[in-house]
Amino acid sequence: QVQLVESGGGLVQAGGSLRLACAASGRSFSDTNMAWYRQAPGKPREFVAISGYLGTTLYLNAVKGRFTVSRDNNTNTLYLQMNNLKPEDTARYYCNVLGLWGQGAQVTVSS
Fold it and tell me: Strand locations in the chain, DSSP E?
């Protein structure tokens, strides 16, 4: 059974940094794309970044240059390093693997 557990969220001032982690269990994910999404209150869930199993990465335009997605296939962990955070980055961040979702991690950026 695949399980995804996000961690690393919190409250930070604008311009600060946070690092999210998504621990995946239940099988190896080295041959699987792994992605981050986010959902702000009253808004639909949106794609943020993806780590392709062949090494490619893609980002939402609004986070390019500020966020970096990475993965550790030895520990089945997906990361999202978020720098220069802005109030508009406030959302619940979710890991998505094989169509499954974790419980999310809240990120709140104060101005």
Answer: 3-7, 10-13, 18-25, 34-39, 46-51, 57-59, 67-72, 77-82, 91-97, 100-101, 105-110
